[in-house]
What we know:
By secondary structure, this protein is an alpha/beta fold.
Amino acid sequence: MSKSLIIANWKMNLLRSDSELLTKSILNMVNPGVLQFEIVLVPPFTNMEIVHRIIDHTDLSLGAQNVFWEDSGAYTGEISPTMLRDIGCSWVLLGHSERRQILGETDFEVRRKVSAALAAGLKPIVCVGETLLQRNKGMAPNVLRRQVESALQDVNNENVQNIVIAYEPVWAIGTGNNASVQEIEVAHDEIRDKLIGLFGKDADNIRIIYGGSVNPDNIQYVLSTKNVNGTLVGGASLDADAFIQLIEKAGAK
Ligand code: PGA
């Protein structure tokens, strides 16, 4: 299995100048040469180029928050996988619950995006997670299994090492209610089991990361949890000091 991941999802925040400042602060404060984590910055589309210029030739890498499945054509408002590669992007978040819930993104769309991203050489971070209602009704295991199976339906074994699954319970995102060790462990076991069912031994190469109200105070228990191979951080990645503290604490666990 590759290094653990720390992914900074800036969502629809920061102007270009803010992104520039934040990226420079992160680069100045972390010592990329000794990083034991793979760190990925995921700015809004309009800020990707400026972030890329700063982190090019460093150990930090660039991700996008979404992609379309076609490569070019009459798709007003969409961005293609090739366009992302063209600006130095190597990762892409897919199926984030904010896209599923607010913009109505479906399992089928996520599946098409995963295939298109892989075909273009992008590494998809596929987000899955149950709502509070689904959890309270005991549906969480089925929701996770369905989302994983659907998203990876067209993926074959040669590509699995390029896939990351992010378990992000919807009730934990942006709420301050991060999941407990036990909740994370159970969900990650469920996902791992599904991946083994789909890809056999090769599933060992798929990293499963946790996201949902991760911050410098809870990063250590999150990363110490069994079967957790990194984290997806939203709010706490928008502040340079908090994000650096989080990376340092992650390294000290
Ligand atoms: P949060 O967001 O850390 O602000 O909860 C995580 C995410 O949605 O990726």
